[in-house]
Amino acid sequence: MFSWFRTDIIIEYWPLFMQGLVTTLQLTLIGIFFGTVLGLFLGLGKIARIERGPWRWPVQLFVRLPSQIYIGFFRGTPLFVQILLIHFALVPLLIHPEDGLLISGDMALYLKREYGALISGALALSLNSAAYIAEIFRAGIQSIDRGQFEAARSLGLGYFHTMKSVIIPQAFRRMLPPLGNEAITLLKDSSLVSAIGLAELAYAARTAAGAYARYWEPYLFISLIYLIITLGMSFVVHRLEKRYQST
Fold first, then answer.
1. What are the chain's domains?
2. Which parts of the chain span the membrane according to its record (predicted)?
3. What's this model's pTM, rounded to 2 decimal places?
4. What is the pLDDT along the chain (247 residues), one digit of tens a residue?
5. Greatest CA separation found in the chain?
6. Nearest CA-CA partner of 73 in 82, 86, 64
């Protein structure tokens, strides 16, 4: 029945597929971690507001407005374009053997040669996911009744202590489903970084398909891998939801 499916192609390129799987998981984990950390600050920045006093306009101009611009840019432009922009423009500006703004010299040469595509891919996915996660945090925080915030402040808690101990723990339960969806989306979007030559799953499939001019085997195989991982992530998110709902 499946005689048309050439398993020898999968077996021959098995090491490349496994390397691609490891790279895909690395990109996803890095994107989720840094996207969540940055997204939290961006989400808080977008809802930062001081009604009156000398800090009203500085907060508006230097906290809220930059957060809105950042979120708008990364949500309003294609991820594929962002990957190319970061790989060919931003990273060479920051890491360059001669005049890198962050790293230069032999270290920059080594990083670009060995990890250039990985750094660009991880940075692009992290920055992009941060914009979407920021909106998840914003919506989750704003869904909590304002009276709880005011009650915590009336008890003498500061702004950050109120957020950390009262608001965010409650909002996190409501954030779990969209955060899980964002993690799954990030996993699938990681295939776009194959455009800059990073050997992840899509890159491995493209290499095998190009060698044999056969497309069913490699692309069905990586589709199965993506499906297994996304189902696993959905199961974990569902279990976490049930756990938090029961507490």
1. 7-246 (1.10.3720.10)
2. 25-48, 69-95, 115-134, 219-237
3. 0.90
4. 567 788 899 999 999 999 999 999 999 999 999 999 999 999 999 988 887 788 888 888 999 999 999 999 999 999 999 999 999 999 999 999 888 899 999 999 999 889 999 999 999 999 999 999 999 999 999 988 888 888 887 888 887 888 888 888 888 888 988 999 999 999 999 999 999 988 899 999 999 999 999 999 999 999 999 999 999 999 998 898 888 776 6
5. 75
6. 82
Burial class (CB in 10 A: 0-12, 13-18, 19+), 182: buried
Q: What are the CA-CA distances from residue 41 to residues 48, 95, 129, 241 (Å)?
A: 10, 25, 13, 24
Which residue has 């692009």 as its token pair?
124
Q: Let me know: does 116 contact 91? Beta carbons within 8 Å.
A: yes
Q: How many Å apart are CA 100 and CA 111, to the nearest integer?
A: 12
Task: Give φ, ψ of 62 to 5 degrees.
Answer: -105, -5
- Per residue, what are the HEC states of 74-120? HHHCCHHHHHHHHHHHHHHHHECCCCCCCECCHHHHHHHHHHHHHHH
Nearest-angstrom CA–CA distance, 237 and 39? 19
Q: Environment class of residue 7 by beta-carbon count within 10 Å: exposed (0-12), middle (13-18) or buried (19+)?
A: exposed
